[in-house]
Amino acid sequence: MQNGIFVPEEEIKRQLAIAREVRSLIGEGKKVFVSTFGCQQNEADSERLLGLASLMGYTKAESIDDAQLIIFNTCAIREHAELKALSKAGALRKIKERDKSVITAVCGCMAEQPHRREQILKSYPYIDIIFGTDRLHTLPETVKNAILGEKHGVYISGGSHDEFGTVAEGVPSLRESSYKAWVPIMYGCNNFCSYCVVPYVRGRERSRKSKDVLAEIEGLVKSGYKDITLLGQNVNSYDGDLSFPKLLEKAAGFEGDYLLRFMTSHPKDATRELVDVMASSPKIAPHFHLPMQSGDNRILKMMNRRYTVEQYMEKAAYIREKLPDAALTSDIICGFPTETEEEFENTLKAVDAVGFDMLFAFVYSPRPGTPAAKMEQIPHEVKTARFARLSELENKRASELNRRFAGRTLKVLSDGCENGIYTGRTGHNKIITFALPEGFPEEKAKSGRFLNVRVDGVQAYTLSGTAEKEQI
């Protein structure tokens, strides 16, 4: 258990008091717009930003043009995500020209990178606030400073990886959904995969206390949340006085009808105990996301993944043994530096052998400051060609695997009806569209309700079916 990583309770109280000050400064009718780029952790962070903004008196704006506080919560995992955020940030110039009182902020992973931070300060002078991934809880103070006239406030810890980052309990979240929730259990990463910028922008691993995590989950269940996802860059490294399998087991022990998910597991740390816990509880979704990244041992070593293809296969086989119906998904990087054609063929063979329900394939994107960025790079056209070949294989394998659901009845959490089409998600994390039989009450199929759906149609990545009158 790490010490000294928690924001003192007095500091949280101070920020909440400043939030009340901001409320009195801005008056009535002010709105906030948060634009989120990147992963589920960023989405969870944005919900906390919205929670703090609400305490300051801001209500959620439907569009950026209606907001007096605009926050871009950015991603740095790939260059495309950074360029997209910078492009959208460019639109803030006209908003600031129209109304100088609008407060603009850029936060998140991109803000932690010195070269991007310098670029923002130089080329985007209309950005009022820049703050890092460990300074979300200070939003009230940064906004107050901007209201009082501070220009280009930069709030970055600048600490070493051993000191970087804090865990702030007691910060409210304004959740986007009334039945789905993100619950971060830890922050940061210690793995330093050679292609990845996360340890540099989110710091080293810090775990929340298990009592705080479990209290949050219990509160969500009592409030009617049905789909709860535990988040961590590597959940298996959770170190909050329990192991991750034990935490998951306790999280599945509350009374109520709900489903637990988690992401992401690092293969080197995914244990048989975790699989056994999943197999023992119907409240844990039968879905395991286990990023392979490459099917070649030399490339895995170059990536600093610290497992072999054989070890990955052994873990996948144990998942299949204990959870034969589980959905297994993965990530693959196409065109990692120095990857040969033969090595890429090894990846294709490994993907075919495992059989993934879904594969998140990416063309390798060099990240400044990472070891892989200094390696011999693969031509872009080769990377994209490999991506296309992998995608073709995965489409075929996913279609084959989805056939196992044909004719079965699955428990589905409804996401409601839009344009006359009902959609939902199964425990296997499969999207399903479904129709209601004649006489079926629409109330029972509204968003946030579990129902039984018979699968009538199967596609590579989606299912279709009909709700059954005999419901859960």
CATH homology superfamily of the largest domain? tm_1862 like domain
> Mean of residue pLDDT?
95
Major sheet summary line: 6 strands, parallel
Number of separate helices? 14
CATH third-tier fold name of the largest domain: pyruvate-formate lyase- activating enzyme
* Bulk shape: globular
Integer-rounded radius of gyration: 23 Å
Structure description:
It is a single chain. This protein has 472 residues and is of the alpha/beta class. It has 3 domains: 9-155, 3-Layer(aba) Sandwich (Rossmann fold), CATH 3.40.50; 180-402, Alpha-Beta Horseshoe (pyruvate-formate lyase- activating enzyme), CATH 3.80.30.20; 406-467, Nucleic acid-binding proteins (OB fold (Dihydrolipoamide Acetyltransferase, E2P)), CATH 2.40.50.140. Helices cover 35% and strands 21% of the residues. The chain has 14 helices and 19 strands. Strands 2-1-3-4-5-6 form a 6-stranded parallel sheet, with helices on both faces. A 5-stranded mixed β-barrel has the order 15-16-17-19-18. A hairpin with a 4-residue loop joins strand 16 (421-426) and strand 17 (431-435). The two termini are 41 Å apart. The mean pLDDT is 95.
